[in-house]
Write a structure and sequence with these properties.
Blueprint lengths: L5 H17 L4 H20 L3 H20 L3 H37 L18 H17 L8 H9 L1 H4 L7 H9 L6 H33 L7 H32 L17 H7 L2 H12 L9 H19 L3 H24 L7 H23 L3 H11 L12 H16 L15 H18 L12
Length: 470
Amino acid sequence: MLFNSLDFAIFFPLVFIGYWFVFNKKLSVQNLFLLVASYFFYACWDWRFLALLGFSTLINFYLAQLIAYATQEKKKKALLVTVLLINLLLLGYFKYYGFFTQSFADAFSLFGVHFNVTSYSIILPLGISFYTFQNISYLVDVYRGKTAPSHNLLSFALFIAFFPQLIAGPIERTGHLMPQITERRVFVYKYAVNGMRLILLGLFEKMVIADNCAGIVNTVYNNFESHSGSTLFFAAVVYSFQIYGDFSGYSHIAIGCAALLGFHLFHNFNYPYLAKNIADFWRRWHISFSAWLRDYIYFPLGGSKKGNFVQMRNLTIVFVVSGIWHGANRTFIIYGFIHALLYILFVYYRRWIDNGERSTAIGDFAAMCGTFVALTLARVFFRAESVGDALHYFERIFSASLFTKPDMSRLFILLLFVFLFLEWLQREKKHLLDLSFIKQAYIRYSIYLTIFFMILYYSGQSQTFIYFQF
């Protein structure tokens, strides 16, 4: 069931009505209703994987309690390692089995040893990367003593399966979401209205921006050998807008739906294409994921406190993990390495030139443009089917045909940058449709109504959300 589908347009109002008007008398009943709705939402994709979601919930629920109440540090650590391995093995089997077996066979073939690798398709359970990382953060926080283990299976199951953020985040933390589950929610009109704005914005980003971009990107990438360098470059630019509109759109709809149910989820995107450098970008893009990498990989490895070499190593590990997390393909590993290199270069560049001078508007604009171009070129590896395709794509870009007219709508590309300009105007606001500064209500609602009709009229061919494959 997609957020941008008729099914969801029927499902969510029914959940909203049942949640606030039918099952609202008792918190446990309300949570049970929400859990059933979440499992139904997940089952609409493939009911068979409800068993995997249930198993993951039970094993983490009970082993977290054993970790918390183990009296010996050695036993606590052994339990933590055990349950972490269970989570990672489940994720690894469904997501990386084919990749690792084929890589294993390829490595030995270099020495003349050949293995017959039986290739069979394993369906990737929807959202497994997200709820696995959410489970891991819960376990580690319990081990560290930052949070108490849950003793209410219903509450914990809802923490893992809460349907707005189950499939593609934001990746929530126990200390943020669990208290909202265990305490009675109250309908707050202004939060609900803001949730509606976020849903409207998310649908616009997904259906108008991302889905229209997808048609252009798919056409070019499916036959990139026949296109000019300029067309390939601008197709890469359009893909940057596609993946942003797609993922930011999902996050805004998820946060908006949660707000209508009385929950506050993590803010996940903060105008990332206004970033002035790679570090600024990762503070703005998929914020819950980048914070997870920082708190559960980068800091435990030592962060930047153990010398330059260790910091470079830690940054490389973090970004390679982020690349591998996105998918079982060498292209994602290279994508992670590129981000690690960009981040390391930024860290040391800043150390060398930092003289305390204030930035200028022209300097900031140039920095934003440079960062955007670097990210766009890196995403060629993210989008390409293979490393060979990505390298050939770059070869075609950096040819004499780079300076010809691109074979695509230049007006559409201009409109994408108009959208980016509007974000720049709204950069001090939480999101693009925070129009509280407009005092006249009829102007605000005219804008909302215009966007609604744009969604109906300009929505591209319906596409699944990109991050469903991760």
